[in-house]
Amino acid sequence: MSKNICFIDGLEGILKYREIDINQLVELPYDAVSYLLIQGELPGDKELAEYAACLHGEREVNREVIDVIRMCNFNVDSIEALRTIVSFISQFDPDINDSSPEGNMRKAIRLIAKIPTIVAAYFRIANGKQPVLPDPSLSHGANFLYMLRGNKPTQLEAEVMEKDFILSAEHELNASTFSSRVTASTLSDLYSAVVSGLCTLKGPLHGGARAEVVTMIEEIACPENAENYVLDKLSKKEKIMGFGHRVYKTYDPRGTIFKQLAKQLAEAKGDMHWYNTAEVVENTVIRELVEKKGKPIYPNVDFYSGVIYKYMDIPPQLATSIFAIGRVSGWIAHCFDQYEKKKIIRPRAFMLDEC
Ligand SMILES: CC(=O)SCCNC(=O)CCNC(=O)[C@H](O)C(C)(C)COP(=O)(O)OP(=O)(O)OC[C@H]1O[C@@H](n2cnc3c(N)ncnc32)[C@H](O)[C@@H]1OP(=O)(O)O
Ligand SMILES: O=C([O-])CC(=O)C(=O)O
């Protein structure tokens, strides 16, 4: 059942994937969480080894993909390229016309495995460098950073990236997952459903907020500027990116974990600057909106993840695509659930009044 994929208590700030709390999930490898979401239960050692081997073996992309990346416009957000290329690679998938559960699983593995390679290759080519071949011996997070930079990340950076993918992987019927499900509900193929998800994730009210957070932290530049920046925005009735949530009326549990990770990275790098800037933003928003106005506007999943990207030298143009690397497992879990239902999603227009 779709409600079994994810559980959110927006008042208590509890999040579970398949009945397992996010605080436990974040200690697992991304491959295990991806398996859990898609297969419905945690893998045993043998299942995990097999699933990981399949994923790691499917990371490479073909020559044509690199040729298309070279034709992209590098002055816009990377999600423009990612959306196009995911659509492009569907033509080369030998299972594109096989909608059996087995065919869909093979497509799922290729999508989860190749999206990080596409994002990293885009980044390297955009910066005048050659793409780096994936390293099958590395975890999802470590391999992504390796393909991005051309050298192995520190253990902490690899762990933070892995946890970012896990924390971003699933969130019930958020806008992009809903979009993917609607596409799957017509029995359209998995690539089309993932492209729908990517198009919807891009918006700044949803996954696009993470890129805006990175830009905002850069613009604020130092903790001394942060309070006035927030007060100025609020006085103009503008939103502070990375805050607020339709479901959480308390602190987002992923926000708490991301905040700890941001602090760990800041300490390890001996540079508290971005973390302290973010903390003043948070304290000001909470004082002005929660304490003075009683509005439940706390940091969401996009706030401290954006701060982490500052510490990992990840530019805003990559932030939404990196979110998608994690979220694709959630989209696929929902699509598989939807395929089983074999029922088209077709709400009536009056239902939009309640959204
Ligand atoms: C992965 C994700 O999608 S997580 C969300 C990522 N998006 C963002 O961070 C963008 C900023 N946040 C927002 O725009 C919103 O909080 C959303 C889209 C996440 C949720 O939207 P909704 O549930 O529709 O809340 P809505 O936008 O109506 O806001 C309710 C009130 O809180 C205020 N508010 C909500 N978010 C913020 C914010 N980030 N900054 C300032 N005020 C805010 C609104 O101005 C509104 O005030 P009002 O009642 O006085 O008019
Ligand atoms: O659930 C939502 O509405 C937004 C979302 O995707 C998330 O918080 O991860």
UniProtKB/TrEMBL annotation:
User: In its keyword annotation, does this UniProt entry include DNA-binding?
Assistant: no
Give the family, as the similarity comment puts it.
Belongs to the citrate synthase family.
Gene Ontology molecular-function annotations: citrate synthase activity
Enzyme class comes to transferase
Q: Does the keyword Protein biosynthesis apply?
A: no
Q: Which UniProt keywords apply?
A: Transferase
Return the Pfam families for the record: Citrate_synt
Domain of life of the native organism: Archaea
What biological processes does GO assign it? carbohydrate metabolic process; tricarboxylic acid cycle
Catalyzed chemical reaction(s): oxaloacetate + acetyl-CoA + H2O = citrate + CoA + H(+)
Active site as annotated:
H245, D302
Q: What is this protein called?
A: Citrate synthase
Q: What is its EC number?
A: 2.3.3.16
Residues annotated as signal peptide:
none
Q: Which InterPro entries match?
A: Citrate_synth-like_lrg_a-sub (IPR016142), Citrate_synth-like_sm_a-sub (IPR016143), Citrate_synthase (IPR002020), Citrate_synthase_AS (IPR019810), Citrate_synthase_bac-typ (IPR024176), Citrate_synthase_sf (IPR036969)
Show the PANTHER family listed in the entry.
Answer: CITRATE SYNTHASE, CITRATE SYNTHASE, PEROXISOMAL
